[in-house]
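Schema walk-through. Below, the input block comes first and the output block second. Nothing else is stored per chain. Lengths vary across the set, and this one has 57 residues.
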Amino acid sequence: MNKIVNSVKRFLVSEDGPTAVEYAVMLALIIVVCLAAVSTVGSRANQKFTAVGGYLT
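--- output ---
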């Protein structure tokens, strides 16, 4: 148990912890932007396909 506690203490004291958190936040923001872009493109493509389908029938 002491080994785990010491590992956690070292992680919290080191400079790598905040850097990892910053990268995680940036990754989360990038994922959100990508999902929004894909959703918008998918919605517009669906509208176009529906319009073309309407012209064909």
